Amino acid sequence: MSVSVEQLQKEIESQLQQLNFPVFPATLYDPLRYTLALGGKRLRPALTLLAAEIFAASKSDAMPAALGLEVFHNFTLLHDDIMDKAPLRRGKPTVHEKWNANVAILSGDAMFVKSCQLMTDVPSSVMPAVMKLFLKTALEVCEGQQLDMDFENRENVSIDEYLHMIRLKTAVLVGACLAIGAQIANASESDINHLYDFGVNLGVAFQLQDDILDVYGDEQKFGKQVGGDIIANKKTFLLLTALNSASGDSLSELQKWMLYKGNDNQEKVNAIKSIYHQLKVRESAEQKMDQLYSEALSHLDALPIKASQTQTLRVLSAMLMARQN
């Protein structure tokens, strides 16, 4: 393909900075500018532009949707931070910390409206189909977030339930970014579905990688505290696999550390990592991640086009899956 991932990322960043938000009221719109200025890899909009390019749509036709999807993604992060009471996002104070929770909620709502406005700027011939998929995806992301919160208060969560939750919370948006790019290009229903399934499988694999890196990653490269999921008893693929696999002394030990109320969090992380090692939990998670990634690539292979036409998309998916641990 003629364009590199880096070129797309720079162009998307430039277009996001050019989005016009009203000056007044400042406490509604300043947090929007602040949130989008925090940066990010802009991979979701890049997926939209690449999918459109595969089927020969112009970048100008696809750019409004690409920007809308990125604004929507940042809206979900803003509201997630409120629910998680997170103090930082990409090393900077979160909106509810810099302003307050009420400002963050309303600014998030405004971001969602702005994302919808951008989505309606696609060519009118495809707008109904694009909006139908976008709004379906937006609702599914809300469902996934609610399931994630519900799981915090449930003692027993199955691995299948967890995979379904991350499919909704994370992966369907990746699938929609690709499918919407293909819709704008008037691709066939079969091709749109293959790109959607490629994205969903890639998105779930990406989240499993996140689970793995939270336990085994390099904190400097990972960008957040390693072991945070263990400290919080977060029901990740690794913890659920351990609970399913453990028995006898190892199960008792795992349950003991999950109930730990002491101050030495590192001791808890080390103890549970030791149990994971005994049960080969990391290997199980990596095996599932690799299976999903292979399944994702099989949908790219099924497209009736030359492999060279999907080369940049393959490079981008490899970048997603190549974070350092």
Descriptive overview:
There is one protein chain. By secondary structure, the protein is an all-alpha fold. It has one domain: Farnesyl Diphosphate Synthase. Helices cover about 75% and strands about 0% of the residues. The chain has helices spanning about 5-15, 25-35, 45-55, 60-85, 95-100, 100-120, 125-150, 160-185, 190-215, 220, 230, 235-245, 250-260, 265-280, 280-300, 310-320; strands spanning about 90, 90-95. Strands 1-2 form a two-stranded antiparallel sheet. Strand 1 (about 90) and strand 2 form a beta hairpin. Helix 1 (about 5-15) crosses helix 3 (about 45-55), helix 3 (about 45-55) crosses helix 8 and helix 7 packs antiparallel against helix 8. The protein is globular and about 60 Å long. The two termini are about 30 Å apart.
Mind sketching the topology for me?
Layout: H1 5-17, H2 26-37, H3 43-54, H4 59-84, E1 88-89, E2 92-93, H5 95-98, H6 101-119, H7 127-152, H8 159-184, H9 189-216, H10 219-222, H11 228-231, H12 237-245, H13 248-258, H14 265-279, H15 281-301, H16 311-320
Antiparallel strand pairs: 1-2
Helix pairs in contact: 1-3, 2-6, 3-4, 3-8, 3-16, 4-6, 4-7, 4-8, 7-8, 8-9, 9-15, 12-15, 13-14
Summarize the structure.
With 325 residues, the protein is mainly alpha-helical.
